[in-house]
Design brief:
Blueprint: H1 2-29, E1 31-34, E2 37-40, H2 43-48, H3 51-84, H4 87-102, H5 105-116, H6 121-128, H7 140-163, H8 168-176, H9 181-210, H10 213-219, H11 226-235, H12 240-268
Antiparallel strand pairs: 1-2
């Protein structure tokens, strides 16, 4: 009974701030104002499948996938370095990744603007070295850089949490059987760390595909991503019905992706290739 009482505040919180908002968005997405009041329609969903909006979705998915893969390439080695570090140093190394997340998301993105702009710190340094300056502000490259910087910790921490729990006796046994470092990594460490990789992939890809602040500030409005499209419908166009429909479609896409990736992670959990 005591456990149930403790759970009630969380249940109320979920109902007020998760269930009710989702139901409101869903209701907006399937209704429209008619002469007799609200009427049911799926026209807002059909409208999204216009080639214009599909191209926006594809472009958003491409940038999110590129950013996620870069985070994986950068994050996996760093997670391994932290996991192999002495215990007394691990918390400090993890803290280095967490501290930037304490800063406001907008401030972190604005800092990249000051770095990447034509008169920014990077170009000043290049001029000082008499090297050609870069002009990547308001491009896809700038958006990807912003995504990687902001979401990299979400890749490192899940992988680290899995790597640090791998039974060291498995690695020692593989080495005793004559496996070199590459074979140990490919046949023991990598398969056992797949749940962390999948969790990190989900935690980076999902916010990357729906972000609008990074693309607006670093992209300069040169192109529209799916997050910008949703924001425009609510704040600029005033079309809450279409904005809600896009939001529900993205919610379904994210849930389906999470289910597939989670199922794959459970199937592979604890499985080696030795």
């Amino acid at each position: 009974m005591k456990n149930k009482l403790i759970a009630y505040p969380y249940i109320v919180w979920m109902i007020l701030f998760i269930v009710i908002p989702i139901l409101l968005v869903l209701s907006y997405s399937v209704t429209y104002k008619s002469d007799t009041g609200l009427a049911f329609t799926l026209q807002h969903y059909k409208r999204f499948f216009d080639p214009l909006y599909i191209n926006v979705l594809i472009h958003s998915m491409n940038l999110a996938l590129i950013s996620t893969l870069i985070c994986l390439v950068l994050g996996y080695p760093m997670a391994m370095i932290i996991a192999k570090a002495p215990v007394r140093h691990r918390n400090m190394m993890v803290l280095f990744f967490v501290i930037p997340m304490w800063m406001n998301f907008l401030l972190r993105t604005y800092s990249w603007m000051s770095l990447l702009e034509r008169s920014g710190l990077i170009n000043k340094l290049l001029k000082l070295l008499q090297l050609p300056t870069l002009n990547i502000m308001y491009t896809n490259v700038a958006v990807v850089l912003g995504m990687v910087y902001n979401f990299l910790p979400f890749m490192v921490l899940p992988i680290y949490s899995v790597l640090v729990k791998i039974d060291k006796s498995l690695i020692e046994a593989a080495q005793d059987l004559g496996a070199n470092e590459s074979e140990v990594f490919l046949k023991i460490t990598l398969p056992l760390s797949l749940p962390g990789v999948i969790s990190g992939f989900i935690m980076v890809f999902m916010p990357a595909i729906t972000t609008f602040v990074i693309s607006r500030l670093l992209g300069g409005g040169q192109f529209t991503l799916i997050g910008n499209l949703i924001e425009q419908q609510f704040l600029s166009a005033g079309d809450w019905n279409f904005g809600s429909a896009i939001s529900i479609l993205m919610l379904i896409l994210i849930l389906l992706s999470s289910l597939v990736m989670s199922k794959y992670g459970k199937d592979k959990e604890g499985v080696g290739l030795w």
